[in-house]
Amino acid sequence: MLNRPKTQEQVCRECFFKAFEEEVHQTIVDNKLFKRGERLAIAASGGKDSTVLAHIMTTLNARYDYGLDLFLLSIDEGITGYRDDSLETVKRNEQQYGIPLKVVSYKDLYGWTMDEIVSQIGTKNNCTFCGVFRRQALDRGAVLMGANKIATGHNADDVAETVLLNILRGDVPRLGRCANIITGEDSPLPRVKPFKYAYEKEIVLYAYYKKLDYFSTECIYAPFAARGFAREFIKDLEAARPMAIIDVIRSAEDFVFAAASDEKLPQPRTCERCGYISSQPVCKACVLLEGLNRGMPRLGVSRTRGRHGEKAGLHPDVGRGSVSGAGSAEAAGGRVRTAATSVEALQGAEPVQEAAAAEGCATTSSRGGDDGGLQQIEGGAGSATGTGSKPTTEPAAGAAVRRRGPVEIEYETT
Ligand code: SF4
Predict the structure, then answer these.
(1) To which H or E segment does residue 2 belong?
(2) Which residue segments constitute the domains of the chain, with CATH numbers given?
(3) Strand pairing partners for 11?
(4) Which residues line ligand 1 (CB under 6 A)?
(5) Full-prediction pTM beyond 0.70?
(6) 3-class secondary structure, 58
(7) In the 8-state DSSP scheme, what is residue 7?
(8) Residue of the CA atom closest to atom 4 of ligand 1
(9) Secondary structure (3-state) at 302
(10) Which residue's CA is minimally distant from atom 5 of ligand 1?
(11) What's the pLDDT tens digit per position in 217-263?
(12) Which atom from ligand 1 is nearest to the alpha carbon of 114?
């Protein structure tokens, strides 16, 4: 028997599997997440959330005949000793679930690996670049593969944290949308969150007891800055009352906003330079790439104000064709003479730092190991049952999962 973290019910493993799967199925059905015949890209990082998502989507697609054409979509950021290893996990998942895998790399798309970017900017703003590039890379990979939708592994904890952070920021427009289970509904490539109501602890338990093959090593460029206050708070609420996570989400769903708040949100469009999905005339990826290619990587991340890429002195050709590597002639020439302009300002004060954590960075969703707390199972029997990426502590019968220490957060900014 085990104690379901979400409901505190005592259930056997088989009943837990069934309940977890049926709840995700109900979420999919109730919210009409998919249409028969759609081609669905499952954003796959090799971490616990996306691995369980791939397993569940494969299972439910067969069990309930959704009629979806599934494939795995992974992003290779070019982080030696981290992503190369996690991609091996995804490649095994491809075989295990029998669905094709497409890998797109930063090097191919942008001309830079994260290793090269970090060599230019250090480890302070690296996740800003990584998150912005990953978000667009997912879109580009999905378009390349003819996908209709992208499914991400964002779970209930992630959504509740996003709600909380948007409240703390007073960001009403985003607060009005952050709990949406579908984002970009009007865009050619909506994103869906089948795990919106699935607790992180239950995802971990499911992966563990199903013996799924997932990767939990921390990125070598994981940020040191503590950014997990929202997650800590949510975990505290959960410890006091497990349904608090769902209640936070439900509260956000029930908020009523003035129509005027919608007007502040940029409408979906395409970047006038690279042509990919953007909420602004020039997308964040093009802004950041411009800085990199000109040897001024902080162009995209410093904090002075600006409104638009052209006004900020961005080169008009950025994003139009092939990208140049580090140390380009542009960089040497230093054609920008104006003060550096922040991405936040260029893009309408969108908090890009948080974007780093979205779309499959397992590290930022749970620092110090991607076990969501499984290694701190209260009263764990302590038998070693896994190797490599697997959790190493077998939960005791009926054990309650105890909250872990500070963790980084993962949430969408939209
Ligand atoms: Fe990218 Fe995540 Fe590593 Fe940051 S921690 S560099 S967002 S993979």
Answers:
(1) strand 2-3
(2) 2-375 (3.40.50.620), 378-414 (no CATH)
(3) 2
(4) 77, 114, 126-127, 130-131, 219, 221-222, 356, 361, 363-364
(5) yes
(6) helix
(7) T
(8) 127
(9) coil
(10) 222
(11) 888 888 654 446 888 899 999 999 999 999 999 999 988 776 555 55
(12) 6
